Amino acid sequence: xxxxxxxxxxxxxxxxxxxxxxxxxxxxxxxxxxxxxxxxxxxxxxxxxxxxxxxxxxxxxxxxxxxxxxxxxxxxxxxxxxxxxxxxxxxxxxxxxxxxxxxxxxxxxxxxxxxxxxxxxxxxxxxxxxxxxxxxxxxxxxxxxxxxxxxxxxxxxxxxxxxxxxxxxxxxxxxxxxxxxxxxxxxxxxxxxxxxxxxxxxxxxxxxx
Length: 209
Description:
Blueprint: H1 3-20, H2 22-28, H3 32-38, H4 43-46, H5 54-80, H6 84-107, H7 119-132, E1 137-138, E2 147-148, H8 149-166, H9 173-195, H10 199-206
Antiparallel strand pairs: 1-2
Helix pairs in contact: 1-2, 1-5, 5-6, 5-7, 6-7, 6-9, 7-9, 8-9
């Protein structure tokens, strides 16, 4: 089984169990106050296996499959060779953690702040793919036409930052933003250190012609 398929399988199983067993959700979701107060550091990772409802789960997993499979099958293979699957796993797991660190620092004394979902990790995966292939065409459910990856990336970051600043609602815009930024940084540094490939130079050659 591929890494992409394994992550999706585990996420679907755990999310589905949590749908019917609220205590499982309570024990695993991201809760900065409990992390600080009781040292429940595992919540930094386990919240990424939970989702609010079926639609939330489907959207995240379809998005992850679309870009995760592309990374695992050829984009990461081009850079990391035989370690491409391991790099995808590392990116996804660390993306879950890094995406919520700002929220932890902001809400660690707020007993009411809780969140869940794999959006931060999925955003990291999406932006990793865009970093490698910035002109790749992207079309989501809410976008009726294809746009270049780099243009989608800029628009997504601006929108996420704006909505995060505005606050309110139940969507983790901070996690979207920081997960996306992390995906770019991780991929750029990993490519530079592992294969001496300058993805910024690639961006300049393919986008800024």
